Each structure stands twice: as C-alpha cells, then as structure tokens.
Amino acid sequence: MRTDVFDIGRLGLSSGEGRSLDLDVAVDPFDFAGQRYEVPGGGVRALLDVSHTTSGYSLRLRFRTELDGPCMRCLDPAGHELAVDAREVDQPGGGEDLSSPYLDEAALDVRAWARDALALALPTQIVCRDDCLGLCAVCGENLNRAEPGHAHEREPDPRWAALRELRLE
Question: pLDDT for 82-111, tens place per residue?
Fold first, then answer.
C-alpha cells in the first residue's frame, strides 16, 4: 500500500527515540529542462528514519530508483539510475531553517518530499551515456548512430556576401 502522508505522531516516540520504516511512496512525474521524467511504476520503496528530538523531529528518507525519460543530448531513452538520501529537521520555534515544509503537526507529506528529493538529486544533465554525441545541428541525425565523419557543407558567412558579387576582370 502506497503512503502519501504518514502520521509520525502515531509512532508514539519519546524524546531521544527513533524508528526506521519501509514505505512504498508514490513519486509524481516531473518536467526537467523541458523534458518529462518519471519513476517506473510511479513509486519507490523507501526507508524513512524518524527520530524524536526534545521538541521536534529529525527525518531521513532514502531510496534508489530508475528514472525514465529522454537523454538531453540525443533524445533516446536515458535510463538513469539515482540514489536519494534526504534529511529534514523540524524544531518548532527554531526559525525557518529548522522548519520542514513537509511536516505539518505530525503529518509528514512523504510523497512531496520524495519527489523534491529526487529532483534535487538529479545531475545537471540526464544523458544516455557520458560520451553521448547528441543530434546534428543541421539535419537532426543522432550522431551516436551516424557514419563517422558525419558533416555538412558550411553555409558561407553572410558578412562576406558582398565579396562574392565582386568581379575582378
């Protein structure tokens, strides 16, 4: 059964106590650099660590997942694998830095946290392989599958157009 919001208050933890939980968490698809990415099956198996501090909670969420979506260079499927390890602290009265946006009273929005943590764990570019050559800027052919030496005759520089009309006779 998938968990979207988890009531950590029901764990009944005393100050200094902690518990680890295995949860099935839904992860919504998202857009990154104009492309759509999603987790296969729409969710992950995650380990949630909850520790009760003196007045709040310390939280840790960990999971591994594949990410389905296109390579940012050649648009072939990227099949990227990620490991996510996210932490949150919620200490009432501790200011903005010690207030988790995912925890409201004792209700932890695991679904939103997992999605945001995944987005933050992404590399700057999602590629099918490190040496991906991308697409030809002229014809759009995938350069990973193109013939060696794939090239096009360059367009003449328009700044030199007037010289082509010059007749030296």
Answer: 999 999 988 877 667 677 888 888 889 999
Gap between the Cα atoms of 100 and 87, Å rounded: 10
CA distance 164 to 59: 70
Q: 95 lies in a domain?
A: yes
DSSP 1-59: -EESEEEGGGG-PPTT-EEEEEEEEE---EEETTEEEB-GGGEEEEEEEEEE-SSSEEE
Q: How far is CA 98 from CA 21, 57, 92, 93, 109, in A?
A: 23, 10, 8, 8, 17
Number of structural domains found in the chain = 1
**What is the tens place of the pLDDT at every residue in 10-44?**
888 888 888 899 999 999 998 888 889 999 988 99
* Residue 9 CB contacts under 8 Å (≥ 6 apart), including other chains: 105, 106, 107
Q: Is residue 138 scored above 80 in pLDDT?
A: yes
Residue pair 47/62 in contact (Cβ under 8 Å)? The answer is yes
Residue 140 lies in a domain: yes
Residue 138 lies in a domain: yes
Is residue 169 assigned to a domain? no
Domain that holds residue 142: 2-164
pLDDT digit string (tens) for 62-89?
999 998 999 999 999 988 889 999 999 8
